Amino acid sequence: MTRPGVPQPHPSRITEFAGHPGVVGIVPGQPELVALTAAAWARGQSGATLVFAYVDPSRYVVSEHADGSVTHVELDPDGLDESWRERQRHIEAFLHTVVDPLGVPWQFRYLAGRPDRALTHLARAVDAAVIVVGTRAPGMREGLRQFIDGSLAVHLSHHQHRPVLVVPLSVVDWREKIGWD
Q1: Which residues form the domain of 26?
Q2: Residue among 103, 169, 163 nearest 139 (CA)
Q3: N or C: which end of the chain has fewer CB within 10 A?
């Protein structure tokens, strides 16, 4: 059921791919396939800009800015954890290594809070045509986490109107038995 007043997907809300950036959700240690897939999409759009974003759930947003960036602080008001700066440098170095050789223009934003909300805010702010995310890593721990938290791609596809491009990072052989078979 939709709430009255909540904008719904509609042909009038389609953002043309040409001339509009793509937003790419990225996490430290993620395979380069997500960045490479986003770069392939951007090249297909005559070199659209990519806005890569990492959303740190251990921090919260103090203020949002028109360019999609945010001012953020850590959840612990007594903490002075500056490890986020090193994480930001690490991600930017990864992007320089993977994306720069492809000649695709890109930017990076370090965001905070819930990933689905942060990426949606960023996509609105930059008027993105698409949001690109990867699937979660395989394994029991990640499966349990996804069961509890839900899938980022599903949350995005249900709570905003832009298309979501999901990059598979691991596949399961259809012939394998699944626990509930």
Answers
A1: 18-167
A2: 169
A3: N
